[in-house]
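As the next step, I selected for study a record pairing a protein sequence with its backbone structure tokens, which the following lines show:
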Amino acid sequence: MRLGLCIFVVFWIEYVSSFDEKPYKCPDGNELHSSLICDGKGQCSDYYRYADQYDENFEFCVDPRSEYFKLHMKTEYQENGTLYLSWWFEEKPPSNSTDEKIRYLRDTDDVVEAGYFLTAKSPHHTVKKTLVYARRHYRMHCLKPWTNYEIILRPFYQNTVIPNSNFKVGEAAIQNVLTHPAAPSAPTAFYIVSVHKGNITMKIHHPDDWNGKPTGYRVRWQAQEDVSQQGHADFDFKEEDLSRYVETFVNLVAGRDYTLNVSARNRGYDKTFLGPEIKKQVITEPLDPVKVTAQSIGPKEIDVTWRTEGFADLFLVAVCNGSCPAATRRITPFLPGFYYSTENPESV
């Protein structure tokens, strides 16, 4: 008979819904933490009420006289978003409380241990599992890095007289756990704000998941024409100054084509983590020509010479009647082959 009952419990547990661990609101407006529900103490009841009403409602709470052992739980270790939990029972001491209320149900419940409801709760993420009663340990997967979780393990029971009746839950064990940090996700985007000579100002939008204490960003650069022109710089900021994005700049060689790579950095347990990169191509504005000379060599010819500092691919030479408008001296830094000129410049 006992074997048959155990087989039924294992089969029945597959169809048991989970228990929603949420605060319980008493009639007087007082809100109880979910771990205080079904702990046999009746925090909502008063002198004129039965103890098995409200937070100790006999419709979903097992009679505490049926729970002879108290559940304890601990975290063995955690790794890569997996939490290894173990639990055990200790015999409860006999209760001699003078403020215990008379229970509405005079007879104890005919119940058998059926399993556990395991819940990991955080403000933005919840994981629920239903486990068989024979288990004494469990690996809880898919937890988010660097997150404060409230781990609640609650036993539940099945009525032996009415097999298809609803389950009843007992007193829960609870533990708070901060999961380990991990590398942050990539920045959601970054944009070039301005390029002046070799100075590049950029706007970096934060990653969706920091997975640790936000620290800053790493900007890595590589010149396309010269593999020796490479390096990186780390930029820090304070977590309390964290907004939707940050602005920063790097000082590179003027007149070069660069690939910029940006990644997020965080910290946790005295260790720094670097996330994946996103990249963008940018061309630094070349330096202005120096020592420009112009000498007439014919009725319609001028010999123009100049010297440039740094790197440049193309030059704009324009001859105007009188002073050339400023537009003839503008070069769009992102497109070095695109120029503005006067209406009728005479190229030399």
